[in-house]
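wait is this the right file?? whatever heres the structure
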């Protein structure tokens, strides 16, 4: 998933660039190539896509975070999130482009928070940081308040302009909410949390407005699904603990995607990276987690 603080303006700017493609490539309809350099934010193998925070590409595109199709199987297999790469952008038809000849030129730690060397990424069975979260109603919530419930959480951004990223995660959570509601006992023993990665903008009123469509415009849905933000410092603790690739640079925020299930005792039970998981699969794991005997601190 990609986050841009100026998401709307960047999306408009991208649209203008797309509309300019015929000017760039229509003369003789010839193939044009450009050199791309940048950092990989996330990797989607099923779609052969890379989300890249690219540097300025003269004559083609300004610096921004964009999804790119890749037609270099060997290069795609070698690159990973956080790699700094160089590649060739190929434009064969108006509005259609892809990457070839990928090459890793380095690893980037600049701007990421916290650094991979300093942070401890939680493993299954370890407790999540119990930081205070402020929900869409302005009320403070902690994971410890949900002890006894299976808690599914993910990270979103209300101004994300890409429908297959943050909005997709929220749609998947909405499907899980609806499925769990079919069984009152499951609904009572589970909870959903969407954590904002843009706490300076995503305050309670914004989160409430964003969340209402996903709970079918019924505020009672917030009793089971909270949309929350926290302080920048506590956000760093969460991001680092769950192993997200997260960076802020030049007023732009980029991050990978991760969905985490906390067991009723507050420990990590499962994780799903990316956005390719299916709601029914996650719901099944949540129900299975509720069947496990709760681990107490004395037996850990």
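ok assuming it is, sequence goes like this
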């Amino acid at each position: 998933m990609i986050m841009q603080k100026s998401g709307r303006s960047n999306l408009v700017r991208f649209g203008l660039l797309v509309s300019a493609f015929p000017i760039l490539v229509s003369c003789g309809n010839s193939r044009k190539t450009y050199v791309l350099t940048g950092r990989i934010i996330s990797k989607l193998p099923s779609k052969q896509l890379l989300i890249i925070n690219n540097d300025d590409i003269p004559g083609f595109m300004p610096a921004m975070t964009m999804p790119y199709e890749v037609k270099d199987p060997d290069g795609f297999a070698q690159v990973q999130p956080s790699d700094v790469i160089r590649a060739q952008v190929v434009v064969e038809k108006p509005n259609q482009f892809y990457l070839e000849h990928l090459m890793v030129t380095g690893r980037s730690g600049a701007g990421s928070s916290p650094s991979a060397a300093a942070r401890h990424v939680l493993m299954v069975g370890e407790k999540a940081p119990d930081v205070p979260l402020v929900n869409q109603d302005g009320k403070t919530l902690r994971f410890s308040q949900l002890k006894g419930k299976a808690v599914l959480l993910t990270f979103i951004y209300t101004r994300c302009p890409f429908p297959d990223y943050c909005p997709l995660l929220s749609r998947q959570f909405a499907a899980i909410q609806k499925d769990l509601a079919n069984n009152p006992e499951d609904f009572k023993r589970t909870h959903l949390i969407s954590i904002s990665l843009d706490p300076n903008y995503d305050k309670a009123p914004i989160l409430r407005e964003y969340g209402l469509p996903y709970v079918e415009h019924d505020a009672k849905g917030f009793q089971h699904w909270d949309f929350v933000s926290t302080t920048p410092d506590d956000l760093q603790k969460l991001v680092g603990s769950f192993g997200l690739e997260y960076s802020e640079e030049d007023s732009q925020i980029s991050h990978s995607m991760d969905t985490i299930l906390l067991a009723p005792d507050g420990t990590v039970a499962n994780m799903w990276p990316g956005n390719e998981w299916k709601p029914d699969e996650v719901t099944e794991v949540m129900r299975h987690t509720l069947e496990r005997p709760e681990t107490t601190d004395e037996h850990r």
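The mean pLDDT is 82. so i think its the right one actually
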